[in-house]
Amino acid sequence: MEQKQSIEQFKGQARLPNFAIPKRYDLHLKLDLSACTFSGTVQINVSIVEETKFLVLNALELDVHQVWFTNSHGQKYHPCDVVLDGDDEVLVLVFDKALGIGEGVLGVDFSAVLNAHLVGLYKCAYMDGEEKKNMAVTQFEAVDARRCFPCWDEPALKARFKITLDVPSELTALSNMPIINEKCDGDVKTVSFEESPIMSTYLVAVVVGLFDHIEDTTSDGVKVRAYCPVGKSDKGEFALNVAVKTLDLFSKYFSTPYSLPKLDMVAVPEFSGGAMENYGLITYRETELLFDPLHSTAARKQRMAIVVSHEVAHQWFGNLVTMEWWTDLWLNEGFATWISYMATDILFPEWKVWSQFLQYTTGGLIMDALEQSHPIQVEVHHARSVLEIFDAISYEKGSAVIRMLQAYLGDDIFQKSLSSYIKRYSEKNAKTEDLWSVLSEESGLKISEMMDDWTKKQGYPVISVTAKDHILEFEQTQFLSAGLLSEGKWIVPVTISLGSYERRKNFLLETKSSEVDISDLVDTSDTNLKNKETCDEQLWVKVNIEQSGFYRVKYEDKLAARLRKAIEHNSLEATDKFGILDDAYALCEACEQSLSSLLSLMDVYRKEADYIVLSKLIDVCYNIVKVSTEAIPDSVNELKQFCINLLMFPSGKLGWEPVPGESHFSTLLRAEVLQALVTFGHDKTQNEALDRFQKLLNDRNTPLLTADTRAAAYIAMMRNAGSSHKEGFESLLNVYREAGTVQEKERILRYFASSPDPDTVVDVLNFFLSDEVRDQDIIFALPGISLECRETAWKWTKENWELILTKYGAGLLLTRFVRDVVTPFCSNEKADEVEEFFASRLHPSIAMTLKQSIEHVRIKARWVQSARQEQSLQELVKELAGKK
Ligand SMILES: [Zn+2]
Description:
This protein is α+β, with helices and mostly antiparallel strands and about 900 residues long. Among the domains are: about 1-210, Immunoglobulin-like, CATH 2.60.40.1730; about 315-455, Neutral Protease Domain 2 (Neutral Protease, domain 2); about 460-570, Sandwich (Immunoglobulin-like); about 760-884, Alpha Horseshoe (Zincin-like fold). The protein is built from 30 helices and 29 strands. Strands 5-4-8-2-1-11-14-13 form an eight-stranded mixed β-sheet, with no helix packed on it. A five-stranded mixed β-sheet has the order 16-17-18-20-19. The radius of gyration is 29 Å and the shape is globular. The mean pLDDT is about 95. The protein binds zinc ion (ZN). Zinc ion binds near residues 277, 310, 314, 333 and 336.
């Protein structure tokens, strides 16, 4: 009785009890890839720091066979009770006699199944010639090491790992450390790896499969390898090159060398995320590691550089210095993200990735404008729920907030502080507050006072700006897409430009409202400015220069009009033109500005040539078409015509053919402009796209469609595919089936469901669930569902929900069904219907995504209502559509 009560105390706890601490794991795994099972023995050196009758560690879906504990005097104990609790994911060992304080070794024999859900130690299929075979891979972050071996599965409980594997002798076996010994015994080989330095359990990794590899060495002599599918090792060259360069770069930036003797990178055929930074053994989804000059787009190449830099940066930020608990996950993800842009900008300055960082962090601004958002530093009550915080708040807002702080402190202080932080917490764990204290020491400023606002509070401000002569008035309030709140105060580093980028002012907005005198910026000797009219026109005020701060700005009408002039006169940087449009769109969605005013602003971008600005403009076009379908259905075609008009200038300049030596941005832009034009139904572009698609059907290597322009042709094909025109779908299906690269398959999946015909889309959705599409690739396929078929997709999802749940398991992939199928709706009726459907089908892993998706629908519904009230909206749309 007494004992039972004691076991109860371990239930429902967020963290493991701390009376025993692991120091070293000796792990031996024996894999049977044909039976899809494994067995293992782990011997864990532990320090008992408090006398105890219990040892409590994590385990999940493991069969535990034998357990023993040997203390430092050689006395052996066997537990009288072994309890595996599947809900709390713990293994409780109960001993008759208390284990005394001191060192000991805990041994466990166990076995399990190699699962198919891409977590823990899982199986994945690969082709060996014509034969389908199994390989085995681990994915432990966040809390799935416990599915592979019993362990203290918390980031703060770092230990050394000595790993040994029994695997089929023809396969390559990899782990975090280099191989120290390999012994063959018939069909099986035993591979032993060197003992690792101390690290967290979520970073332990094993890969067993068939690969070819290429290698290179950093200037510090670290051997770096890229493991690729057999016969495709040349495709790993680009990633290998980026990894070698970034290892050198980060060693210098942090003044700390890379801490392991080698770094391997592996392209894994089945993988749920993008990449995983396991210490010394980074695993990637194939499309993130394999570069194919013919089939990879410019956008994909850039993303690969960012992803590789991100994972390499984790070897310091995350692996060497680890967050103390998942609450501080953003320390890993926010920093790795921010620094991956820094590194990519250094390696490929021509890509100007900092301007594209804004496109990326918009995701953070969107999510954090929801009532269902959460603070960057978030309480994690149950380890399993940590999966949901690998989201736009940890990555996008996290990295944006870091960039804002870096811009405020300056590069030098920031770099010095980061390198002190890495040195001080090397092989240890840290909290957000630890980083703030290092930054405070180096800068002499009270960093936590300012930053707590951004990391401990949900949301961010919108700053309203009004001008009275030479005084600018600022007032902040919390920005929410469902309507602004009157409360809310942040410490905001505000930057202002006045009429030119030479005339700027910075200040910290620490109160609800504040005034700034800008007389010193107005050069009264400038005769041009004496005239009231030219003065107004030239003295535009842009707040949040280059959008380096994580907040939005709302200008009074007079200032907004001046900015529109400045955009027309091309006086602003691309980042600012991007920011003005992005803020205006968000304010319009929140019903703080009219849709008419947004359309008038869009109209001044007609002569725009810059990639990020146009990319934003296209994004806004897609969204307003979506909302207008409900708000002003009779005017949607005219609205699409207006969108087409806006893109005539860049499309005329870019055409279909890449120009040798053209800029990276031209290549990126051509792809997006053509896709938008076929989506909005521009006849000329659609016909051209269909012609080119026919050429592709006759010759898969036709130069008429490059990797970058193919998507436009695929969309055109599917937009024309319907019940009366089945060949469209079938011909694209053939291209998919014959595609020899993952890049080409990914591209087709993205646009497969873009047909406006419900029957075709049902066929496509059923195809997504077939064996011809790998489970992991569903993330590409779902966002492409056409606006016309959102209802079809929702109906299909409801009908197939049980099947979807079984096939994709309860994890990241399942959340995509919720997000991508639900968010295109714009009415409260639909929001209610979705809520009702999931009321009896709620699963913890989709809870947050579902709430956020429904909130998005209600926000759009509110916007639709508001747009319907706008008096002259339809006349304006007509006028803009006619203005060529
Ligand atoms: Zn990461």
